[in-house]
Amino acid sequence: MNIVTKKWIFLKISSLILIPLMFWFIINFTAIYDQSYSEIVSFFTNPINKLLFCLFIIFAYFFSALSISEVFEDYVTDPVIKNVANILLYISAIVIPLFTIILLINLKV
Amino acid sequence: MENKSPLSPHIQIYRWHISSLVSISHRITGIINIVAITLICIWASFLTLGETSYDFMRFFFTSVFGKFITLGIVWSFSFQILSEIRHLIMDMGYGYELQMTRISGLVVIFGSFILTILIYFFGKNFF
Fold first, then answer.
1. Domain count, chain A
2. CA B64 to CA B29: how far, in whole Å?
């Protein structure tokens, strides 16, 4: 299978998974964003919320990295700049969610 | 060697249509969303630093600017949800008629504002 076709399929699968996760997250985010520290910690220490949030950031970064690399493909002419931008994008899409998940796993009430 | 691959047409050359507005907004909200998700990760990570350090975050989110940013994030996510659903429907081969692309584009644009209000209302009152 062509690499571009594979990328398109991954984009569509991640989009299908991300839509309900995004919906779940923004409703809960509006409910807790201005609450006290203890209420937000109790939200994130709930195992179901923790799992859904971790899945949300993994798929959100995966989907965003694929979509933004398409934007680079369409608008960046210089291949060196495009490659550097893509490498930085993919590294941050792995490091940021991984770091956040490790911190959240260790979060205690 | 000079890169001969074609780039997307310059957005200032062609006359604007609903579908072009939805397309460029989809890309802009995609970039806003990755920034928003990064801020959300920083916000969640701040929790591990303890209550005193988190006070700074709470001060930000309870301010008018913080609430404006929150509403902006909700709108950007709402736009992406509706626009992605539109894309998935079109990927299945539906909604390519000119009239239908205009209607679905308008649904995405106006629907994103309605969805933002509904999500904020439900989030604040029922969760």
1. 1
2. 22
Of A22, A44, A75, the CB nearest to B47: A44
Domain with B98 in it: 18-122
Check residue A66 and give its pLDDT.
94
Q: What is the mean pLDDT of chain A?
A: 94
Domain count, chain B: 1
Domain containing A27: what range?
A: 3-105
- B17 Cβ under 8 Å from any chain A Cβ: no
Instruction: Kindly state the tokens that stand for B43.
Output: 């916000």
Contact: A103, B48; criterion CB under 8 Å: yes
Residue A75: the pLDDT is 86
Regions of chain B short of the pLDDT cut 70: 1-12
Q: Is residue B72, in this structure, part of any structural domain at all?
A: yes
Q: Where are the beta strands (DSSP E) in B11-101?
A: none
